[in-house]
């Protein structure tokens, strides 16, 4: 489930165009019919757009992610690459879900699932069912989400990445229902698979939830350790919004653990991340905590500064 969300730069668009050109040139002397060469080039170009969009998504640049996933969708549709189109629609839905645009997410996830049912590839159908389950979870329709994840689980058996995603999502449902033991077991299962495959952003999400489970049990040292591990995974993935969420979670935990100096430093770092992505609500939450900690620590100038900043943000 999107918890929070390496950056690619706009200059890579030239690389995409270059790659598409190289694909065309590489077939120019072959016996492949021209129409086939054009289709291959279009599919490759769509794949490059999707990679660009992935980078923008993990960098928290959602408008750019939507743009390039849209380009990937158009490219795949233009050559009837059904699998690529399903993946692009799924990715569009994920961005919308992360942004909280649930109606748009519902449209994209619904279209992807409809196409996946016809296409018939089990792991792709599992992914689409899981995506729709995440939407239902976000809508607080927990029983519907659980049913979708249960349906997805056997279909994902031969796809390690999708199986790990479904296990994580089932763990989220168990956590929401108060079954912390089942939640922990499922998310540990997902974390083990993601760590082995070096899927760092997914591992960061797993560890973030494991930290919240430890915190719910009153195990502050364990929660802090897991949150630090989540931060390390998100840094490895260059998952910038994930880094912000991890820092903020660590700050809360350090504050609860009577470590105000460490909490103060972590909130300042989290605030810097959120300001960089214009995430106003998260930035305001950090400023409130920073103001309180500044007073507690006798940092009067900081307290004044953070109060002024909060006022500018309408806090």
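^ structure tokens above, recovered residues below v
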């Amino acid at each position: 489930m999107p918890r929070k969300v390496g950056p690619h730069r706009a200059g890579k668009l030239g690389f995409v165009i270059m790659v598409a050109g190289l694909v065309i040139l590489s077939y120019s002397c072959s016996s492949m019919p021209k129409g086939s060469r054009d289709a291959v080039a279009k599919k490759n170009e769509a794949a490059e757009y999707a990679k660009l969009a992935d980078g923008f998504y993990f960098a928290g640049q959602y408008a750019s992610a939507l743009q390039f996933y849209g380009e990937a969708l158009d490219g795949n549709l233009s050559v009837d690459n059904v699998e690529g189109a399903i993946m692009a629609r799924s990715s569009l839905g994920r961005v919308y879900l992360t942004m909280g645009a649930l109606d748009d997410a519902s449209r994209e996830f619904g279209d992807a699932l409809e196409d996946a049912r016809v296409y018939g590839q089990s792991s792709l159908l599992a992914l689409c069912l899981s995506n729709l389950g995440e939407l239902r979870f976000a809508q607080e329709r927990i029983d519907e989400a659980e049913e979708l994840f249960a349906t997805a689980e056997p279909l994902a058996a031969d796809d390690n990445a999708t199986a790990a995603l479904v296990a994580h999502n089932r763990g989220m449902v168990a956590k929401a229902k108060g079954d912390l033991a089942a939640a922990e077991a499922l998310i540990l299962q997902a974390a083990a698979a993601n760590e082995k495959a070096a899927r760092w952003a997914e591992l960061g999400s797993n560890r973030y939830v494991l930290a919240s489970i430890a915190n719910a049990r009153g195990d502050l040292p364990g929660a802090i350790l897991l949150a630090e591990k989540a931060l390390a995974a998100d840094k490895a993935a260059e998952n910038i919004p994930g880094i912000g969420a991890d820092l903020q979670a660590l700050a809360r935990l350090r504050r609860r653990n009577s470590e105000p100096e460490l909490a103060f430093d972590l909130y300042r770092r989290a605030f810097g991340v959120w300001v960089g992505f214009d995430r106003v609500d998260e930035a305001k939450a950090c400023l409130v905590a920073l103001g309180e900690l500044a007073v507690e620590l006798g940092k009067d100038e900081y307290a004044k500064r953070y109060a002024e900043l909060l006022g500018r943000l309408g806090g």
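Residues 34-58 form the longest helix (25 residues).
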